[in-house]
Amino acid sequence: MSMPTIFHHIYHFYFNYHQYDMHSIISTSIFSRRIQFAVRMTVSFLVGGFLAYGTPLNDHLELQYLIFLMSMLSIQETFGMTLFVSYQMLTAITPISILLYIVQRIGLGYKDYLVGELILLISSLFVSYKCSQVLTRKIALLFIVVFFSTIINQDNLPSTFVFILLERFVIGMAVSVIVSLLVFPLFATFDIENRVNYCLKNLQQMQTIIIKAFLCEDQMSAQVSLAQASTIEQMIRTTMNLITTRLVEATIEPSRCLQRIFNRRHRHLIDLTIQEQEDFITSLMFHTSSLQLMVKHCRFNEYHTHYTRELRATLLHLDLCQTTVISSLLSSSAINRDEFNGRLASLQQAMDTLREVSIKARLHQVEHVLESGLIIRSEDFLSHAFFLFQIAAIVRILMRVTTVDENRSFFQEIKDRRKKKQKKKRRTLLEWIKPQWPQFLSAFKSMVIIGVGSIFVMVPRLAKVFENGQWIFIALCMTQGDTVGGALTTMKMRLIGTLFGAMWAYITYLAVSDNVYHTFGMLVPWILFFGYLKSLSQWGYAATVACFTPVIITLGRIPYGDTLPAGNYALLRIEENLVGIAVAIVLTIIIFPVFAIDVLKNNIETTLQLCRQCVNTMHAIYDKLFQNEQLDVTTVTIEKQTDQEITSFIDAQRSRFHQLISGQRALIGNTSLEPSFWWFKNSFASDRYSMLAEQQTDMFRMLHNIDAILLRIYECSNTSETHIKTLQFDCIDLWSSYFTLTQTRFFRIFRNCSFTYAKLNESDLLKHKQCLVELHQTVYRLQNQHQESVNRLFDHYHDCLTQGESLSDFVPYADNNNVYIIFIGIAALYYSTTQLARNALALGTNIHTIFELETTSLYRPF
């Protein structure tokens, strides 16, 4: 291996920009990313330690732990997120520090309990109301808590104490930003591109396996391949979950500049913004998953066997050509545009050949049916058309994203982005001033919790018992959450992290006593280990607490020397956290509680309404493309938009849907910790709600397919469209109303500001049952109508044949590709409509079961 190649490997590994044919599995794995993050956190700790103990900043040793604390709290997995969090925290604590400086200059000082309590409450209310992000709110409250707990209990503090405190916070944040930029930097932009490349590579592998399953001649052989495809699909979904979050983090990074620097070899092949990449990969995922769905429900009968035998060679050749194109996009070695255009031309030619072969195969089937008098099942006919449509849609997507506008300059992109920002609707002054009552109630709750925590600091007897009670105060501050379930999850993680950290702090003291440098040596491997665990979703905040707890216990007690033995200090830390968490549990539940189950149901209701909006969009697209005057759609106005704007609108809906589903999955975990027995007849059915998220995805996928079909064809069936309209207005509204009616009274009062209470009754159950019966009837009615349409079509063919016409004369798509595209599109539309009804039926059945579990005593556990 040559030196330039070695340097290239190191260069891409260090900056976390990967080509999957170039690097080893170890260098591109999640293990390496976690190790790199652990190294960043450890380096941040060491740099903070040098600044705290090796510079003139060590004149306030009792505050030095704040540098370590802030550097470890501020550093995030990506540079964009670290910078974003640090910026938000800085903008939150800077005005507060100015206010507190004025307050201190006016006269607030040692043992001014009453005035201090009043100012503490006012400032915490303001911070909680203005800071919408949980971490930013916690850090701003921590700043206030440290200021008041210090100034009330210590005499002779300098008048600039608040700025000394601010300095420690800013230094910690600056350390985290610099380390995140210089030590194995992971830009959110690169992480998105890495994830997109990974998903693209595995989606192609998944499609190859699905095609292999489709070409099988029996169900059992296909199931083996489908099991492999399902495993790959789950890996892809896990990888895609964070892309939406990374898009937010990348807004603070120079994304296009980074792409131009690191993606020079492939910009002439594909040049998409990170948002366009997200749209590209999610659309590709939808169509590939639809292929998998079709094969899963495919009937491996004689019709399928004859049809696939004729398509086998052409379909495998198409898959090979597509694999070659995707390999070109992911390859570390650059190819010129002419060579790549040749590969694209081969892919398009393979698609055209597949279309021609499929036409011949269908003509053979028609001829065979007319000669033998057999009946083709509509499901066989429609499902194969649906499969071919998905294959063609994937090819079209690849052809579209690889079309590069070479005349578009970097500055033109900046101008276009600025124009888009100007088009966005800005909030008016009235909207800025108008109070947000749910947010105000949440801020008031935070203020009360902070006020209760201050009792342990400002009441002399309690402060003496708990060594000033500072850590109880901080525990109450740092365990707050947007929901009861989220707060309880944070409390559980904080307790676990505190126990681990306190034990290691005591071991460190026994090993090295109060020697600062030896203490650092003991803490480095600990931070490295838990920095690795922090990237794991099940550890997260617990690992963060486990990292900084031994730092605070060992280095935080050094200024006090032997007056406070390390063993007592560690036990005191555990005791104060236990007291703080116990108090926080009570206050979180009794003061304006917002339960995660209510937020989850609100999310599900929003998702269902988004599905209904998608159906309305479908009607509007139909009206625009085909000038249909029969429908009156007023909820979605896209009549004056271009086809590209319609596509962008659909992409935005799909992105919004993914955000909602990701939120649902997170809320399910938080809800499982809440006392659901207070309002449900049975315990929280987490498995049912997880299944509900998957069923909503299946339903939305079919809606997306119908949109894609309507954008592709020039002719549509009124019958299928009418059934979709019925599904929308009869079923989705009913299901949405259930999740609204079963929310707790606390949520309706404190979040929705609604004091009315509508009780559920037995008639609601009857409505659900009637809805499910109608869905069953819809599925059968669609199947019968499709079968009748196929029968009428072949009766017409038979009449033409008996009149002496040749097959190519009366089969309209025999010699016309455009007609064949319309024919395939209409068949795929029929199939999608039937699957939509089936998915709606499965979704409604699950909702009905949840309805019964939560509101009736029909199911009782042992």
Automatic annotation (TrEMBL):
<feature type="transmembrane region" description="Helical">
    <location>
        <begin position="78"/>
        <end position="101"/>
    </location>
</feature>
<feature type="transmembrane region" description="Helical">
    <location>
        <begin position="471"/>
        <end position="488"/>
    </location>
</feature>
<feature type="transmembrane region" description="Helical">
    <location>
        <begin position="165"/>
        <end position="188"/>
    </location>
</feature>
<protein>
    <recommendedName>
        <fullName>Integral membrane bound transporter domain-containing protein</fullName>
    </recommendedName>
</protein>
<keyword id="KW-0812">Transmembrane</keyword>
<feature type="transmembrane region" description="Helical">
    <location>
        <begin position="135"/>
        <end position="153"/>
    </location>
</feature>
<keyword id="KW-1003">Cell membrane</keyword>
<feature type="transmembrane region" description="Helical">
    <location>
        <begin position="37"/>
        <end position="58"/>
    </location>
</feature>
<keyword id="KW-1133">Transmembrane helix</keyword>
<feature type="transmembrane region" description="Helical">
    <location>
        <begin position="495"/>
        <end position="511"/>
    </location>
</feature>
<feature type="transmembrane region" description="Helical">
    <location>
        <begin position="440"/>
        <end position="459"/>
    </location>
</feature>
<feature type="domain" description="Integral membrane bound transporter">
    <location>
        <begin position="466"/>
        <end position="586"/>
    </location>
</feature>
<keyword id="KW-0472">Membrane</keyword>
<dbReference type="Pfam" id="PF13515">
    <property type="entry name" value="FUSC_2"/>
</dbReference>
<feature type="transmembrane region" description="Helical">
    <location>
        <begin position="540"/>
        <end position="558"/>
    </location>
</feature>
<feature type="transmembrane region" description="Helical">
    <location>
        <begin position="578"/>
        <end position="600"/>
    </location>
</feature>
<dbReference type="GO" id="GO:0005886">
    <property type="term" value="C:plasma membrane"/>
</dbReference>
<dbReference type="InterPro" id="IPR049453">
    <property type="entry name" value="Memb_transporter_dom"/>
</dbReference>
